[in-house]
Amino acid sequence: MAYGFSTYDSDGNLQFSSVDSTWTVIFAGLAAANSNATFTVPVMPTRVVTRQMLNQVTGDDEAYVHTYSLSGTTLTATAPSSTDTVATYFVVYGK
Predict the structure, then answer these.
(1) Is 46 within the bounds of a domain?
(2) Domain count, the chain
(3) How many other CB atoms are found less than 10 A from the CB of residue 2?
(4) pTM, full prediction
(5) Percent of the chain scored above 70 by pLDDT?
């Protein structure tokens, strides 16, 4: 039996699995709530970005998680809303 870590998208498609090959954490960082952020990330031949919503906005509002783009050494996290975006924790794996 294999053990490992796997993440799936909202449709149930496998996005990342540590079972098939070894991945290294090359970056971990936090994008603050309601703001944009830019991070420097090492370059490796293959990289995967994962993100986790942290906390929750108060009240009965809809909460948003940061969108992101990774190009070269730059990871850009963009808040879709200036008032309802929660803090987002990013982890980049490389191999």
Answers:
(1) yes
(2) 1
(3) 7
(4) 0.75
(5) 91
